[in-house]
UniProtKB/TrEMBL annotation:
Keywords: NAD, Oxidoreductase, Pyruvate. The keyword Repeat does not apply. InterPro entries: D-isomer_DH_NAD-bd, NAD(P)-bd_dom_sf. This is Glyoxylate/hydroxypyruvate reductase A. It comes from Marinobacterium lutimaris.
Amino acid sequence: MLIPLIADIDAEELELWLQSLNRVLPDQQVITSEAIDDEQAASIEFAIVANPTPSELRRFPNLKWVQSLWAGVEKMVSMPELAEIPIVRMQDPELARIMAEGVLTWTLYLHRQIPTYLRQQQQHHWKQHIYQPPSQTRVGVLGTGNLGLAAIETLLANGFKVCAWSRSPKQIDNVEHFAGSEGLDAMLPQCDIVIALLPLTDATRLLMNDQRLSQLKPGASIINFARAPIFDYDALLRHLDAGHLEHAVLDVFNQEPLPQDNPLWEHPAVSVLPHISGPTDITSASEIVRQNVSAYLMHGSIPETVDYQRGY
């Protein structure tokens, strides 16, 4: 059986995916969608996708579901070409572990005042700052899905005080949880570090606007490992310039790659990362795809799909 990989990604990465997927699905043939002619495309029931282009999706009019290789699907749910075809997003425990590792890395980067010491090195300035244990640092996590929960568990294991926010109320052990708009307004002033790990939806777009950023305590820092439009980056820069906020670690941007002339590159209070906080592990993700495809071929069952109304 032919399985198209509809992907607009780097050629080297595409080849790695093809090798891995064909290795775990030896009885199927996973090939690039461009290698499938229109007559064959009309008979295809499901596809594997990664940043698919609308024009390529239109070539497959009879899709019953698609398997995304990425966890984020906000672009796909807005595509009329999919017409609410079930989307299965990547839910890989290894992805959650990798993201939690990144969250801890950059939380410690801020907690141990590495940006300050880097500036001091550039200035040839020798000054020691008082150490503060993690138990005295409150980290607020925006989003309590798989990635958020994994990050929370890792932060707690390393001694940080953790609070969390999501759209609806939840019970999380050893975590003060806040929900809804009023809950976010109540949580933000308590946080030393705020970490965004939530999907981009109509409800979360510009969630962290100028008003919300102004609610953060003086000296607080931001980590955005979610999506850029969740924040008003212009407002964020103003708060950094004014000294209200200490530092921002940004892994996602409205335009990627980040343009060379973007002021974020040179800002002394910004760490720019090239969208690497939660890279998909090709080996483990391919195994997730194998499980989902096998279940469909054997039983006709489609795994949990994206809610188009919520956007995730």
